[in-house]
Amino acid sequence: MFVSVAVLIRIISNSLSNVYQKQLAQDGFNPSFINFVMYTGLTLLMLPVTCQINFINLSFVCWGAAILGGLFGALGNSYLVKALKNGELSVLGPINAYKSVVAMIIGIFLLKEIPSAYGIMAIFLIIAGSYFVFDTQEEGFSFKLLKRADIRYRIYALIFTAIEAVFIKEVINNSDIVTSFILWSFFGMLFTGIIVLKSGGIKSISPKTVWLKLLVIILLMGVMQFSTNYVFSHIQVSYGLAFFQLSALLSVIFGWKYFNEAHILKKLIGTVVMITGAVLLILA
After folding, report:
1. In this model, does residue 100 exceed pLDDT 90?
2. In this model, does residue 26 exceed pLDDT 70?
3. Is the dihedral of CA 96, 98, 103, 106 positive or negative?
4. Structural domain tally of the chain?
5. Average pLDDT in the 200-226 region?
6. What's the whole-number mean pLDDT along residues 252-263?
7. What is the predicted pLDDT for the residue at 60?
């Protein structure tokens, strides 16, 4: 019951945060800078809790996973906002379905998580639904899509964040969901800060509306990641990521409502197919 609630919270918070990230990116803000502010805000908010945790007792495995998770998370989230800047939310959202496959493959080798036959069938059904979404694009469901920067960035993002998810699970296995959240925020801030400095993407912020959007992103991403950690602490990574694909439905709706994106009906059909796969996975 609690896992289902956490999945729902994660889906809503993630989809809403993508809307605000896309709006700020379209306003000219460096995607890495947006993420740096997000990670920094969460790190500062968690300081009272951080002071009560004995990090010395954490194993080398835990620290290693936290560092690598922070690196891949920083890269993944930066590419995600880059993709959102110019791409359609209703297309980029469903692409994330491929993350569960990447995480499943990585999880098999690193976490020894072996999916069932129904689990594999459900994951492939989720991917098959993306055909309808891609078919709304000029390039159709073909390799020509890879020539588009927004599609490539979204694929990079899902690969990096899928790897990140496996390391987050490893940190949770060797600590707890709160410690994992704190380490995720800190190392995300560290590596994203390095990316920002190298790209020269620091930008002054003055309008109150921008600060408000950044604050909303911080809160939404905080809720998203904590609920993600809770889900990962109870089920396999590949299954958890498959459940999260339900957010594709909200991505299509938000893309239509906030950015006037077209071909919504066909995209919704593809999304329903993906949700069917997720339901099969739950029943399995």
Report:
1. no
2. yes
3. negative
4. 1
5. 80
6. 83
7. 94
- DSSP letters spanning the chain: -HHHHHHHHHHHHHHHHHHHHHHHHHTT--HHHHHHHHHHHHHHHTHHHHTTS-GGGS-HHHHHHHHHHHHHHHHHHHHHHHHHHHS-HHHHHHHTTHHHHHHHHHHHHHT-----HHHHHHHHHHHHHHHHHHTTSTT-SSGGGGGSHHHHHHHHHHHHHHHHHHHHHHHHHTS-HHHHHHHHHHHHHHHHHHHHHHHT-------HHHHHHHHHHHHHHHHHHHHHHHHHTTS-HHHHHHHGGGHHHHHHHHHHHHH--S-HHHHHHHHHHHHHHHHHHHH-
User: Which comes out higher in pLDDT, residue 142 or 67?
Assistant: 67
Residue 96 domain boundaries: 2-283
Angstrom distance (rounded) from CA 40 to CA 106? 29
The answer to whether residue 284 scores a pLDDT higher than 60 is no
